[in-house]
Write a structure and sequence with these properties.
11 strands, 16 helices, 13% strand, alpha/beta, TIM Barrel
Length: 378
């Protein structure tokens, strides 16, 4: 039987917000929604600090965590005793180095390069199946985390069983109706139907088509949240009309004042149109909807090296991003973002976004209730 998410999680509005920024997670949960922290960015010790901080600032409100346990992972990388960064082929490093050198983007000073390498070394274990389980172990010390979400594929059934035993809701991102059976077999409670408009790892089916397909395939066994292109309260009403219980949002929080983005990163978002959010593999080796830039397009050009398997492509990307960020080069900057970026034109606050979404949601429901066509059918 499908669970009632709002009742089960104890939230006031059906707005779920994914973010790598603890401030966004806290503000959404305090405003009656459900903040979800992306955990893969943090080494274990930092994740502990982030979760402690969230616990202290949410006033007891529930929140969630999103992590990645890769099913397809470079066997050489997993078995190697070398730092993963050292396994990135010289051909790929030389390609990126020359690309950025030719663009006039300075190389990192030796001390910053060493610091970056050390930081990546701390984080690289997160990208392995064992590392993801370590993050999960840390998260389970925090009782206010009421939902765990698998960002890539079904969660291992042994973990699902353990979490269910603690009364925790288990969710998973889902981009195709064919994937529903795998999530059902794993024991998922919630499917996030992520349409092709969404930022990050995503498929190609538009949200408006995908949501009813996932709802139908779930057949009442699992709750569904709609994701991809959500920026208006009327879309919450539309999602519910298609059978979803609420919406899963992500990109719209990037340009809030609470987010982790710097001023130059926000400026890159403000300049973008919807069609500047493209699907490319440069970030992880898998298709990611992200901001079009000279870096993202360079790997698509003739003569570019082939994409590397996870996690090596991601490590190559992190090195490039460090140089780009230090130079604040908007032309080469790229980051995951959905097509809703075309509507993200000014800095705002999390509370303002939450208020706008809820106001528009109520207005949409009122318009539907007063619709003559609906009244004629009753």
């Amino acid at each position: 039987m499908t669970i009632d998410l709002m009742t089960k999680l104890g939230i006031e509005t059906p707005i779920f917000a994914f973010s790598h920024c603890r401030d966004v997670v806290v503000e959404v949960s305090r405003a009656g929604g459900f903040g979800v922290l992306g955990a893969v960015m943090f080494p274990p010790d930092q994740l502990e600090q982030e979760l402690d901080w969230i616990d202290r600032h949410t006033d007891g409100k529930p929140y969630g965590i999103d992590f990645l346990i890769p099913a397809n992972y470079s066997k050489d990388a997993e078995e190697s005793e070398l730092p993963l960064l050292d396994m990135v082929p010289a051909q790929h490093r030389d390609f990126v180095t020359k690309l950025l050198d030719d663009a006039g983007i300075p190389r990192l000073p030796d001390d910053q390069a060493a610091e970056l390498k050390a930081r990546i070394a701390k984080r690289e274990k997160n990208l392995t199946p064992a590392g993801a389980r370590e993050l999960l172990k840390i998260a389970r010390k925090h009782p206010n985390i009421r939902m765990y979400v698998s960002a890539l594929g079904p969660m291992p059934t042994d973990l699902v069983d353990e979490l269910h035993g603690e009364g925790i809701v288990v969710g998973a991102l889902c981009g195709k109706p064919e994937h529903v059976k795998h999530h059902r077999a794993a024991g998922a409670d919630v499917l996030i139907a992520q349409g092709g408009e969404a930022g990050g790892h995503t498929g190609t089916v538009p949200t408006f088509m995908l949501v009813p397909q996932i709802v139908e395939a779930a057949a009442g066994d699992m709750a569904v949240l709609a994701a991809g292109g959500i920026n208006r309260g009327s879309q919450i009403a539309a999602a519910q009309a298609m059978g979803a219980q609420g919406v899963w949002t992500g990109s719209i929080w990037l340009t809030t004042m609470e987010s982790e983005l710097s001023e130059f990163e926000r400026e890159a978002m403000f300049r973008a149109r919807a069609d500047d959010a493209v699907r490319r593999k440069v970030l992880s080796g898998k298709p990611v909807r992200m901001l079009r830039s000279k870096l993202s397009e360079a790997f698509e050009a003739e003569g570019a090296p082939a994409y590397l398997p996870a996690p090596l492509q991601g490590l190559l990307f992190l090195e490039a991003r460090a140089r780009i960020d230090r130079a604040e080069n908007v032309e080469y900057y790229t980051s995951p973002v959905g097509q809703v970026v075309g509507e993200m034109n000014e800095a705002t606050t999390v509370r303002d976004v939450m208020y706008k979404l809820q106001l528009e949601y109520v207005e949409a429901l009122e318009k539907l209730a007063a619709n003559p066509a609906l009244q004629a059918l009753q």
